[in-house]
Amino acid sequence: MDRLYANLLSELECPGCSNYMPPPIRQCKTGHSICEKCTNQLFKCPICQQNFTKARSINLESLAIKMQYPCTNSSYGCQERLTFIERNSHMKVCSYKKYSCPLKGCFFTGSKSEIKSHWDSKKLKTKTYGIKKVGRSKLKANSYFVRLVEAYNENFWFKKMTKQEKICWALQYIGDSNKALDYYFEIEVFKPDFPKKRIIYSDYCQPIEINNDDLFSKNNCLSATFDSLDNYIGNDKLLTYCFRVFKSEKTSEQIKQYINEDNSSSTCRTKSK
Ligand SMILES: [Zn+2]
Ligand SMILES: [Zn+2]
Ligand SMILES: [Zn+2]
Ligand SMILES: [Zn+2]
Q: Where are the transmembrane segments (predicted)?
């Protein structure tokens, strides 16, 4: 990026939050530009302490839309230059993306490979799961459990949570969120010594962007009430289940298409009634 372009870009940095200002760009009484978010969070202009007005900086907005900005991961090595619109879709696939460790109380962030070595480090006593793993757990009132999964040369988070007499399991793909649907997982609950007494739950893998609250509350996970699992609890009071991760034969694109086709065929049926 040449100096002139870099200078122009710096004019589009918000004086409040230092991010590039996306439209709508607001102004203070003096005429300083500021991003809309900051006008909601700050009381006065951070440069001159004047009040904000409702006026927008239309010319600056149209310039802001045309400019190409460095990827937010540029400090980690990403060389991409993108418009605001391109930036949103790029962020989902940027290979320099940093991921945060989902362990409670851990603030580590790193690339895919850094996450893996963090997880393998001696400091963490958390073993990595493979393609298949038998788990046993006590149905406690409130609990949270997470493991790194290595399968198909990819990494996933396997998360388990118990809350309000319910157990939830979820799998998240660490990487390009468009690829999450290429994988699915199964939880097979069975009673030890009675292997044919079992239930199999199955669901797609979720993208990494979903936070734990949404993951466990908005049907993005597998869940079962403690009551429904009562008959499967072993003599040791533990629930035994087998976790498996699969690569779908259908790609994410095919699944989306399949869902669309299915929707259109069901509307046909209702019309023909
Ligand atoms: Zn701002
Ligand atoms: Zn000002
Ligand atoms: Zn990038
Ligand atoms: Zn950690």
A: none
| 157 CA to centre of ligand 1 in angstroms | 33
Encoding tokens for residue 5? Answer: 């372009």
Domains of the chain by start residue, with CATH:
3-93 (3.30.40.10), 122-259 (2.60.210.10)
DSSP strand pairing (166-173 vs 143-151): unpaired
158 Cα to the center of ligand 1, angstroms = 36
Q: Which pLDDT belongs to residue 270? A: 44
For residue 107, what are the contacts with CB-CB under 8 A and spacing of at least 6? 100, 101
Tokens of residue 217, six digits = 């509350």
Task: Kindly indicate the confidence band of residue 255, based on its pLDDT and cuts at 50, 70 and 90.
Answer: low
What's the CA-to-centroid distance between 76 and ligand 3, angstroms? 9
| Ligand 4 centroid, distance to 102 Cα (angstroms) | 7
